[in-house]
Amino acid sequence: MSDYIEAMRKLIGHETLLTVGCGAIIEDNCGRILLQQKIDIWGIPGGLLEIGETFEETVRREVFEETNLTITRLKLFGIYSGRNGFAQYANGDKVFSVQIIFRVTKYEGTVKHNEECRQIQFIHRNEIPENLNPHQAPFIIDWLLGRKQPIIK
Which of 45, 101, 112, 137 is the most exposed place for a label (fewest CB within 10 A)? Predict the structure, then answer.
């Protein structure tokens, strides 16, 4: 948990905290998407914007931390908000997150997962797992459907 979120939680307890998430739909040269399995659900790499960071800095940092990849070409895929942005964690903390999602087709490095996930791999469009992170499923589905970008929801 970042220092900012920790400080805010001391002030507001479990009440809803507004956060900004940044994620990446990373495609390899075969058109597969990079998904990571955390606990029992699959999703894209990404995380929360820290105070003073740009969206691009956040997604680059999170992707490197979670995948060991350095992303070199980013294109805005979509901005997501609305009801799907609400979440409540097991400890009672509530958040509302706006998501800034990038599409990445150029990267450097070899994929390696960190301690946050069970596995990470490139997956073909016709093999997408059913157990997607419900907060990330809209991005992945929009990618599968080839929706015109940038997507604003």
Answer: 112
- Distance separating alpha carbons of residues 113 and 115, to the nearest angstrom: 7
Contacts with 29 (C-beta within 8 Å, 6 or more apart), sequence order: none
- Count of structural domains within the chain: 1
What is the domain-level CATH number for residue 37?
Answer: 3.90.79.10
Q: How far is residue 70's CA from residue 50's CA, in Å, rounded to a whole number?
A: 19
Q: What is the pTM of this model?
A: 0.93
Q: Any long-range contacts for 85-88 (C-beta under 8 Å, 24+ apart)?
A: 85/135, 86/16, 87/135
Q: What is the pLDDT of residues 47-73, one digit of tens each?
A: 999 999 999 999 999 999 999 999 999
